[in-house]
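User: Modeling request: complex.
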Amino acid sequence: MSKLLSCSKKMGNRKGLLLITLFLNFFGFSSPKLDVSQFPSSFLFGTATSSYQIEGAYLEDNKSLSNWDVFTHLQGKIEDGSNGDIACDHYHMYKEDIELMHSLGVNAYRFSISWSRVLPRGRFGGINPSGIQFYNKLINELLMRGIQPFVTLSHYDVPQELEDQYGAWLNAEIQEDFGYFAEVCFEAYGDRVKYWATFNEPNEVAKFGYEWGMYPPALHSQPYVAAHNIIISHAVALHIYRTKYQDKQRGLIGIVLAMAWYEPLKETAEDYSSAQSIIDFDIGWFLDPLIYGDYPNEMRRRLGPKLPKFSAKDKEKLQHGLDFIGINHYTSLYVRSCGISHCIAVEKDGIPIGKKTPMPYYYVVPEGMEKIVTYISKTYNNTPIFITENGLSQKSDDSSSVEELLNDTDRIEYLDSYLTFLTRAIRKGADVRGYFVWSLIDNFEWIHGYTMRFGLYHVDYKTKKRTPKLSAKWFKDFLNAPRLQGREDEKSKLI
Ligand code: NOJ
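Assistant: Request completed. Predicted assembly structure:
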């Protein structure tokens, strides 16, 4: 380093500084300013949404009720007593929303298909032509604008019929229903859709729906059975795609998990092993079976007979694995060992892990992005990765000033810093192929109703008017900046 300093004096200040910066960047000491040319040229940059959170039209054109339609109509489940009956009215405003994306300059859009719109009664009734048509129109409009559809099959929602008939994820019957739904979608849209995610955050569905009782069906039992059926349902859909569609449709299929980064609270062996254990329980729970054929040993050891076993037949289906891993990453948390369990903490010696955000347990910790991506890439054989969600919430109620909401400089800082740490993971060798901001527009934030706003565009829920926030302009400028260096893109080609 001292050699470098004396060399810089000889070169004059500006050149010297440049040399030092290059040196520091090369060895990973600091990150160069974020710019789009740090990503491969075929990298997908997009925004993400999900059907229940934006579509509305909850009973229009023969759509039936989903589990979320029913749940939000129960007293006291949603913070502001709201629901997704109308939401952002995207069902009627999809063209305008695509126009917003086009004006940003994104090349991909992640959305989900409402299962109860396409198959109102699951496999117990017919296919709904209006449901099929809605997503056909959406997909065609996207493609006309040069935007790749990135489709999630189940983003938390299930037709209520399946809940009523047999208890949805608690019953192995759902594997057949999910396989049928997936096939209807591959058949209808697979000629144009090249990116499929079977599930969004099944780890949250199982925990929140079947352990903590916060999401439908609001139970406090059997998260491991629900997860088991989701994992096998994924495998069933994979089997169908691989054997009947992938050759001719040439798309990729994967799964999306919620992934916080867990940092050991102290540099002790106990806290390190607690952090690893929680990662096994949160992420390995789904990825180990799909990639290595079985649950992590840590789960077997702790749960014993509570953890279901994969039959020989299931294992056969699991062999189809996945083509990519979707990472929804927002925050990091501390973990410490406490007795036989592990405990989450958000502070160390009275100092929070990062800046607090309005969402409970969400803190701004940009380094977590590099850590989680590197961990996933190393643990799962450098499987291709998409960052399927990343973004920042704003608290809002009737008294919030629209001007303040539009002036979201903290979101700009958040996105800039997380993307910067993502480039570090890419430089270290992670095969990251895309990044989606959550979300395009403010929308229905599950149990928080409309009190949390994640959008690049503000939505006035009375008039449904969309207005760009400062972050929309920032994202647009970032995406449209001239590429400083052309990068050969050998990675992101489809199979
Ligand atoms: C995860 C979920 O996939 C999405 O639906 C939700 O709105 C965001 N994260 C923010 O909480």
